[in-house]
Each structure stands twice: as C-alpha cells, then as structure tokens.
Amino acid sequence: MKKLVSLMIAAIMLVMFVFPAFAAEGAAGKLRFDEDGTFTILHLTDWHTAYPMPAVQKQFAVEAIAEAKPDLIVLGGDMSEASKEDYPAAVKEICDLMADARTPFAITFGNHDYLHGIAIDDLFALYKTYGGEYCVSVDDDPALFGCGTCSLPVYAYDGSRVAYNVYCFDSGCEVITDYAALKNDPSLLPEARSAGALVSNYDAVHPDQIAWYRAKAEALKEENGGEYVPSIVFQHIIVQEIFGAFWDEAKETDTKGLVQFDETTYKMTPIPKLSRIKDGYVMERPCPGYYNYGQLDAMKEHGDVRAIVCGHDHSNSFTVEIDGVDIVNTPSVKPHSLFKKLNWGGRIITLHEDGAYESSVLTGYALAQKNGSGIIESGGISRFEILLTKLWKAIADVSLRFWKLVK
C-alpha cells in the first residue's frame, strides 16, 4: 500500500511537471476588484475532516460559498485527518468544492498538515493538481521555510495597478524533544529539529519568510509610485503578541497562573482583557508559536499590512488591534460542541480599493436558519441547538459589554 501511495504521488508530480497548473492568475485571469471597488475573500480553516468528508462540513462549505460569493477562497490549514493512503482522494474532495463553485482558492498550511506522513511539498503538489486552474497558490521561493508562502496581487478593477496584496504564509509545525532545554538555550533548536520529534509544537513565520516579505513589500511600493500597497496576511498560527494583548507580564511576586513564552512570563488571569476585542469572542486561550521571530514588528514597520488573519484556535472569532495591525482569528469549519457552536463557521473579508477592509464571521447556525439550507438535515446542528446558541449569544454579548467596562 505504501508503494502504491508513493507511485500515486510521483505520478501527480509528473503531471505537475509536464502540464503545469495555472499560476496566480488562475481560471479567471488576474485577481481583480469588482466594478463596485470590492474584493471578497472567504476564509475557511481548520476543517480537520475525515474521508469521506462528513455531510455537515460539505454542506456548510457549499452554502458558505454560495452566501459569500467570494472572489477568492483561502483555506486556512489543518484540512484533512485522512490516512496517508486516502490523502490524495481527500484533497481532491476538498478541491472539488472550489472547482464546482468555479472560484479561485489558495491554501496556507497548518501544523496538522505536517503530521500525516506526506512531505509538505508533495501535499502542495496534490492541491495544485486537484485544484487545477482554480488553485492560485504558488511557492514563491522554494528555499523558504515551509511551502506555499506567496504574494497574490489583487488588481484594481481597471487592471492598471495592484490595489491590494494578499500574503499567504506557511507557519509550519515545530517539533522539539525537550521543552525545558530549549527554554534555557534556544540555540539548541536546529539540533532538535534534525534529531526528530517526540513532541509536536506550534511554530511561527520564520526569519527567511520575514525577509522575503520585507523585500516584496518594498518591490510593490516601488511599482506603486513610492506608496506601500495595502495588504492582508493569511497564516494558520496566530502571532505571539496576542498573549501581551490579553494578559500582563507577570510580576516577581506572582506565583499562580503563570505561562512562559519565549523570554516572557505572563500572568494568565481567567478572563483576558476583553476590552481589547474589537469584535467576536474568545472561547479558548490562543496558542501562538513558541518562538517570536519578529513578524509583527516587521509588518508594523512597513505599515502596509491591515490585518493578519489566522485559524488554529478553533472556537475563537475575535479581532484585536496590536500596534496598528488587526489580529483576526477565524473559527473552525468543523462543528464544535454545543455552546461553542456560537463560533462554528468561516469568515467573510471584504477588501476595498481605497485600502480599507472589513470582516465578519459567517456561522453555521446562522446559515442553518436560512430558507433552503440543508445544514440541519446534514446533522450539523439541531433546531434546539440553534435556539440554545441564540440564547447563549445574547448572554455572551451582554457579558462582553460588562467585562469591557470593568477590564
């Protein structure tokens, strides 16, 4: 069976070589703004789907695409939990959803995408092959960490200039053998990588990717008459600064609720600083990468990035502004347990030619209430759960307003 899977992947890569898929222009030519000056992105992340795909996830994806009518879909990673043998078929099943909707899509890999025994380059090849002309992801520099880090320019409606830029980053999956040793001596990290994994850990955008971003931002600026091009970033794992946004650094006298990340220790109070939230909900503690390589600092310095949109933390749906950049968490496509269904869904992001953007969460329970929806019949949520979710949302909204006043 392993030999059969290897032959399948080899055949797919041969097809990739002989019949190269379309690059960033995809099926509809260049990505460009609509006549009304808007460009819509649908962010669908953390599917964690079995193979074959459960009916509820497929139904949600179909209805979300129909509702958002996106110009681009970004798959946020952690897509399938299929076996290695079934993985090619699982990827095809996912890609068929975008092909059936005739909608371009890109992918940013998640940490779980690294854990299925398939090299990340080979996995990227599967998406390119089965996505065909609709997969607009490219690997701009194969020498960079991970795979699929790229820049997707979105042109003005008249095609005269790049009006917005979409960055896709692979935030990877760090594997380490000894947490304590690495906390004391981060220089051991390269050796730990080469030694193999006993524990999988969350990673981040790496220094070479950040250097690539800086060069790309400057190149776009030069092409744009000396003005930075407004940009939005997609990646799986949230930036580490989210801890500082929600919790204070610990004092020497603090002894409880302490978490150390990189070189900073935070006092993790049960309720974070909810006053920082511009919209959405926090249902679980964010899980950034262990190391901070300076991604947010670089993007703050250039001033082009409006938002960094992440997944990874399945039941969070917040937007928090840090140093002029919105940090946005999109919830999981995979249905949550009862009260977390409040945050089950995807995110619609609307870019504007003038550089602004706006976003909102498209929830499964909201779609299920629309006329003609098949989500309830697919087994994703019951009418009773919808009622409880609406009640829980009302309570959460009142509680959020209260805690914003007292924090």
Topology:
Elements: H1 2-18, E1 38-44, H2 55-68, E2 72-75, H3 87-100, E3 105-107, H4 120-131, E4 150-155, E5 162-168, E6 173-176, H5 179-184, H6 189-195, E7 199-202, H7 207-223, E8 231-234, H8 242-246, E9 258-261, E10 264-267, E11 277-279, H9 295-302, E12 305-310, E13 319-322, E14 325-329, E15 345-352, E16 357-363, H10 364-368, H11 383-406
Parallel strand pairs: 1-2, 2-3, 5-8, 8-12, 12-14
Antiparallel strand pairs: 1-15, 4-5, 6-7, 9-10, 11-13, 13-14, 15-16
Helix pairs in contact: 1-4, 3-4, 7-9
Report the uncertain regions. 1-7, 9-28, 196-200
Average of the residue pLDDT scores: 87
Question: What radius of gyration results from the CA coordinates?
Answer: 21 Å
Broad shape: globular
Ends apart, CA distance between termini: 57 Å
Q: CATH homologous superfamily - what is it?
A: Metallo-dependent phosphatases
What class, by secondary structure content? Answer: alpha/beta
Order of helices and strands: HEHEHEHEEEHHEHEHEEEHEEEEEHH
CATH class identity: Alpha Beta
Tally of helical segments = 11
Q: Tell me how many strands there are.
A: 16
Placed side by side, the strands forming the largest sheet appear as 4-5-8-12-14-13-11
Description:
The protein has eleven helices and 16 strands. It is an alpha/beta fold and 407 residues long. The chain has a single domain, classed as Metallo-dependent phosphatases (Purple Acid Phosphatase, chain A, domain 2). The strands form four sheets. It has a seven-stranded mixed beta sheet with strand order 4-5-8-12-14-13-11, with helices on one face. It has a five-stranded mixed beta sheet with strand order 3-2-1-15-16.
